[in-house]
Design brief:
Largest sheet: 4 strands, antiparallel
CATH architecture: 2-Layer Sandwich
Shape: flat
Helix content: 10-25%
Distance between the termini: 30 Å
Number of domains: 1
Strand order of the largest sheet: 4-5-3-6
CATH class: Alpha Beta
Radius of gyration: 16 Å
Structural class: alpha+beta
Number of helices: 2
Strand content: 25-35%
Length: about 120
C-alpha cells in the first residue's frame, strides 16, 4: 500500500516449519545498544553472518534453533570478554514462534531462507 510517497507494508510473520523440527525456522530480531566502536563493529560482523540489517542497530532473520544458539554464543563471547565488557551495553534477541503481524512504514524486503527453496 502507498500513501503519497510513503510505502506501508502489513506482513504476517510466523515460524516456518521445516521437513523436521530441527529444520524449523523462527523469525528473529536482534536489537542492541553498544557504546564502544570496536565492540560495535565486532557485533555487526557477527550479526551480518546470520541476519539482514534493517536499521543501524536492528537485524532480522529466519533462523533454525542451532543457528540461534550459535548466534547467541557468539554474542555472549563478545559481551562477556574482559576486553569489551560494559554493564551498560544491551543486546536483545527476540525469537517469534507463533503468529504475529508486522507493520513497516518505508521500504520492506522480505528475506527468504535460501536453503528452503525447492525447485
Amino acid at each position: 500500500m502507498t500513501q503519497g510517497n510513503l510505502q506501508i507494508h502489513e506482513v504476517s510473520i510466523s515460524k516456518q516449519n521445516g521437513s523436521s523440527p530441527a529444520d524449523d525456522r523462527f523469525y528473529v530480531t536482534v536489537l542492541f545498544d553498544i557504546s564502544d566502536a570496536k565492540k560495535y563493529r565486532k557485533i555487526i560482523k557477527v550479526l551480518n553472518g546470520f541476519s539482514d540489517r534493517i536499521q543501524y542497530s536492528i537485524f532480522e532473520a529466519y533462523l533454525k534453533k542451532e543457528q540461534i544458539r550459535n548466534l547467541t554464543n557468539a554474542i555472549k563471547d563478545i559481551m562477556a570478554s574482559p576486553t569489551f565488557f560494559d554493564a551498560n551495553d544491551r543486546i536483545r534477541i527476540y525469537k517469534i514462534a507463533g503468529n504475529c503481524e508486522l507493520t513497516v512504514f518505508g521500504e520492506y524486503v522480505s528475506s527468504i531462507p535460501e536453503d528452503n527453496v525447492v525447485i
